[in-house]
Amino acid sequence: MGITTEDRLAIGELLAMHGHLCDSGELDRLSEVFTTDVTYDITDLGQEPLIGVEALAAAGRALGDLNPVGHHVTNIVVTEHDGQIHARSKGIGINADGTSASVTYEDTVIRADDGWRISYRKILARRAPLGG
């Protein structure tokens, strides 16, 4: 398949858009980032995976004021393996009380008719330094 420079830029913007939409409360636009049948694996956070973009939006609405006020993504690495495109990135969440948390996003992205979309996302909490 081959990942072009344009693909890498588009995937980076896709990952960034997630934070912009969540932070502005535009959860009805999450289909611009995720496939409609996305698997959003949050088992490392002690919850069952969410299936589908509507489940993601509903979970965000249910969290209400417990949502971070800022979702920031950085350190994006895009790779191709066995014909699939993967993106690994770091997420930093800033809470209303000033506390923060760090996660690793492991995404599978696909090229849809309307651009790149995340079809699978696994969130891994960063709880200890040096991967411990």
UniProtKB/TrEMBL annotation:
| Start and end residues of each SnoaL-like domain | 5-122
Membrane-spanning ranges: none
Its name, as the record gives it, is: SnoaL-like domain-containing protein
Supply the source organism for this entry.
Kibdelosporangium aridum
